[in-house]
Amino acid sequence: MQKPPHNPHDLSQHDLEDILGTIDQEVRQRFGEGKVANYIPSLAKVPIDRFGMALVTIEGSVHTVGDARERFSIQSVSKVHTLTLAMDAIGDALWTRVDREPSGDPFNSLIQLEYEKGIPRNPFMNAGALISADVILSNYDDPEAALLDFMRARSCNVEIGIDETVADCERDTGYRNVALANFIRSFGNLENNVEAVLEFYYRQCSLSMDCVDLARSVQYLADGGHCSSSGTQVTTAEAATRINSLMMTAGTYDAAGDFAFYVGLPAKSGVGGGIVAVVPHVMSICVWSPGLDEKGNSALGRYALHRFTRMTGLSVF
Ligand code: GLN
After folding, report:
1. Mean pLDDT across the stretch 162-185?
2. Would residue 140 show up in a list of annotated catalytic residues for this protein?
3. First vs last Cα of the chain: how many Å apart?
4. Contact 288, 51 (CB under 8 A)
């Protein structure tokens, strides 16, 4: 196996197009691994033989391969963006309402909430994301516009929007999320009414974006809160560091340990098959392939990220 360069952070040492081409070839030979999410029809009908990957360096140059410009449902990847908005709105007060520990339980688990008195384990479980949604509802005049503006500005794409069919299905099938929100509310840890919080959550999950949009949307996490693509200091360097830490320990649900082991980058996944990952001080990444493993993470997305960090030496470890 080829040894990664001595200083992997120096991007001139890598042929990124070549690396992406190799990963694309390998992934396409493995099409069929995993299962497409089937809890709603609009996700179930996405073909499994899709793979896209986009890299956005902190200077803003973009490298892509495969289906990197095909839109998909971002689902729980949106929890990164809503956490950023919630942290910006109320700062450290957020941590009285949600914890910062890995859960070791599935993303939609109810179990810890009972004995932890309505304080979700972390902002990336569904329960924790409902807290971020609640904070946004309490602190932004037009919460949905704030989220859409944030996504469009970060991605430099004004066409980003919500897939209404997905949003309708989320609402129709969101039984566990309804249970989670009511349970949290019963402990007094939601300020807004349950229906409003759930509606915001369903709509954030239903955003439709492609790999380039999503990789750009988290560029600020690779560069101390700064996004060169939009020329904005999006959040503080401290907030960006903290969000990366949370992604590392909890961004891929109860597979966060496995991700650290095989990939070694802060990452956040969604059941649409997208995963964003951050190489601190170097680049942001998005991979997409709809086949999910048993933990709800893209099986080939994880493989692609694994190959990427091994070929480049860009794991944080
Ligand atoms: N809409 C999904 C849910 O709330 C999102 C879950 C996910 O992407 N992990 O169950």
Report:
1. 97
2. no
3. 19
4. yes
Q: Which of 201, 202, 220, 303 is catalytic?
A: 201
Q: Residue 287 in 3-state DSSP?
A: strand
Distance in Å, CA 197 to ligand 1 centroid? 15
Question: Residue 313 corresponds to which amino acid?
Answer: G
Q: Please, which residues have CB within 8 angstroms of residue 78's CB and are 6 or more apart in sequence?
A: 129, 147, 204, 205, 207, 270
Site residues for ligand 1, CB cut-off 6 Å: 75-76, 107-108, 126, 170, 177, 205, 270-271, 296
What's the confidence (pLDDT) of residue 201?
98
Task: Give the atom of ligand 1 at the shortest distance from the alpha carbon of 253.
Answer: 9
Contacts of 225 (CB under 8 A, 6+ apart): 233, 234, 235, 236, 237, 239, 240
Structural contact between residues 272 and 266, judged by C-beta atoms closer than 8 angstroms: no
pTM above 0.90? yes
Residue 79 annotated in active site: yes
Helices (H), the chain: 16-29, 41-44, 78-90, 111-115, 126-139, 143-155, 164-173, 175-186, 194-205, 211-217, 219-222, 237-250, 256-262, 299-312
- Residue 154 scores a pLDDT above 70: yes
Parallel, antiparallel or unpaired: strands 291-292 and 35-36: antiparallel
Pocket test for ligand 1, best of 105, 205, 298 (most atoms within 8 A of CB): 205
- Judge whether residue 251 has pLDDT over 70: yes
Candidate of 74, 107, 175 to mutate for ligand 1, largest count of ligand atoms within 8 Å of Cβ:
107
Q: Is 202 a catalytic residue?
A: no
Amino acid type, 271: V
65 in active site: no
Residue 34, SS3? coil
Q: In the annotation, is 201 catalytic? A: yes
pLDDT in the model for residue 158: 98
